From TrEMBL:
Region of interest (SAM motif III), residue spans: 167-176
GO biological process, one term: methylation
Organism: Kitasatospora saccharophila
Protein's UniProt name: Methyltransferase domain-containing protein
Any GO molecular function: methyltransferase activity
SAM motif II: annotated span: 140-148
Any matching Pfam family: Methyltransf_11
PROSITE patterns: SAM_GTMT (PS51581)
Amino acid sequence: MEPAREPATDPGLNTAVERYYDITLDLYEELWGEHVHHGFWDEGQSPALDGADRHAATDRLVRELVEHAAVPAGSRILDVGCGIGGPALQLAGPLGCTVEGVTLSARQAARANEKARAAGLDHRARFHQQDALSTGHPDAAFDVVWAMESLMHLPDRPAFFAEAHRLLRPGGTLAVATWAVRDGALDADERALVRQILQHQVMPDFSSLEEHEGLARAAGFTDVAVADWSAAVANSWDPAFARIPQIDRGPAAMRDLARTRGVDVLGFFHAGPLMKKGFDTGVITYGALRAVKPRP
């Protein structure tokens, strides 16, 4: 048995994240489709210029992480922050993997299980409302720990890397795609922008890609490889992709939405312009990380 590291939990944050995704589930699915994550484009591509389909771009992000992390077909995977199951069903379908997905949102887990049944993949993809840092799985239970755009919500990232290391079999792979912040000091305006993004997206803080790499190595991983995908995913916040600014609901409709779902839902509509500014200025970055649990 590997020694367990007790994570620094934040029940209040977990509750806020759960509520945010419960109240925005239908909004994300209506606007972003199967995947609650960024898309991936080649240099020079733009959804406004070439009409790149949102689903194709988000599907591609999954394929790019599969390739970057060299995820083997038929793997047993823990999907940390599974959302409504888009990436997991892609892993369970074409790759033939067996996926256990966890999310703090009960509504997301229920919707993901619905989608798995509809796709005929419920024998290979199951979804649960669980804290990723306390799933109860035994040591060495998985070939791959997959975390696509979920680390930003975790208040104790060292605990995540330690738990991923514990859950992986020797030779197993950690595959991460994450929002990040530019390494180094930020000026006052940049710090203010980051604070707004964190507030509206219910996140405790950001780490840089360099910090993620350091955390993986400190947890005992080897063969750590980080790729900066900022330029490839930045178009995700173009209005032609995100579509958030295209919703002309008006002030009265916004008030009704806040009254019925709570004011937290308004963060969904503020996110687009803030994230676009973050990518345009280079303050917000995005990257992929692959790390391997060494064999004895």
